[in-house]
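Internal tracking record. Fields below are filled automatically when a chain is submitted to the structure queue. Please do not edit lines marked as system-generated. If the sequence contains nonstandard residues, flag them in the REMARKS field before resubmitting.
Queue: standard
Priority: normal
Entity type: single polypeptide chain
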Amino acid sequence: MMMNKELIRENKGGTVYFRSPDITAVHGFSTRLGGVSKAPHLSEMNLGKNLGDDPESVEENYRRIAKAIGFDENNVVFTNQIHSNTVKYVTEADIGNTYDCDGLVSDKKGVVLAVRTADCVPILLYCEKCAAAVHAGWRGTANSIQINAVNEMVRLGADPKEIKAAIGACIHKCCYEVGGDFCDSLYELLGRELALRHIEKRGDRVYCDLVSLNKEMLISAGIRDENITASLDCTCCNSELYFSHRASKGKRGVMSAFICL
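SYSTEM-GENERATED OUTPUT FOLLOWS
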């Protein structure tokens, strides 16, 4: 039976973020609180650089979240998220770069891995030897990006049973209504039996539970259930705390999840 361990809320000088009680590396999931972005749909802690925000505000937001969590904002590697299942290995040589992928993994000290979300599932993975950051939209989830990330960590010497996983706030099944084409794609990619465990019908409407699906797939990759911590917050239900693509009909900022050995 999958457990429900929660993330811990932190407030450092007004900058609010969440962390896992199990991950000892520097890490955190940002919220929309504690930044300086002014536009209503971007306020306050927008971390997206291509959303029409004032570049200086975005830079200040990065400085604030970096100070709160405890990493060097100059040492970040970014993803240009394309809803793939690609996880890229990065080192110090990649700092400051942005790559067409949806996951990053590293075994190098001081390299900050970052993924951005505004409803999709952010996942941070950690063991003593390496760490990973994953952006799991429904396509990435169904195409096993979380399993690919675990496999990359294993390639770097990790034991899946020792990996700690943290799932940040994302859209939950209460709000994630999906259509028939979505279900057909999920059945094709995952198999009907697995997919149906994470789909709920309410009358003529269908909803998907991306959190439980990602948990099950992480467990199938060898991570222990007790080593998985997940946010109970739905981004769509809590748009005062989180950016949500669905709640805002696409007019929003983005949050980020960070991890650094």
